[in-house]
Amino acid sequence: MHVKKGDQVKIITGAYKGQIGEIMQVLRRTQEVLIKNINVKTKHGRPTKEGEVGQVLRVEAPIHSSNVMLYDIHRKVASRYKHIKDEHGQKRRVLIKLNKAY
């Protein structure tokens, strides 16, 4: 998967196109991501115990990972990335448009 938890991403297609958010969770099996405060749906919860009241919860729904792109907040650029080994031999993600480590 090209994105990880905690990455800043920009949505490139769909109803939320152009919005920017942070990835809260990556669902690898379905290749979807949950983005904080984006694609929020309301979920109605029933009371489970006697005397308890029902709830209306706001929950983020998943978006397919192909609809998001890594985003650099400081330079305000969305870009694809490539892997480069640094001087210590570790793989780093580098944004192609900026040629700088993410």
How would you sum up this structure, described in words?
Helix content is 0%, strand content 49%. It is mostly beta strands and 102 residues long. It has one domain: SH3 type barrels (Roll). The strands form three sheets. Strands 6-3-2-1-7-8 form a six-stranded antiparallel β-sheet, with no helix packed on it. A three-stranded antiparallel β-sheet has the order 9-10-11, with no helix packed on it. Strands 4-5 form a two-stranded antiparallel sheet. 13% of the residues are buried. It holds the Pfam family KOW. InterPro entries: KOW, Rib_uL2_dom2, Ribosomal_uL24, Ribosomal_uL24_C, Ribosomal_uL24_CS, Ribosomal_uL24_KOW, Translation_prot_SH3-like_sf.
Short description:
The protein is an all-beta fold and 102 residues long. It has strands spanning 8-11, 20-27, 32-35, 40-45, 55-60, 63-64, 68-72, 77-79, 81-85, 91-95, 100-101.
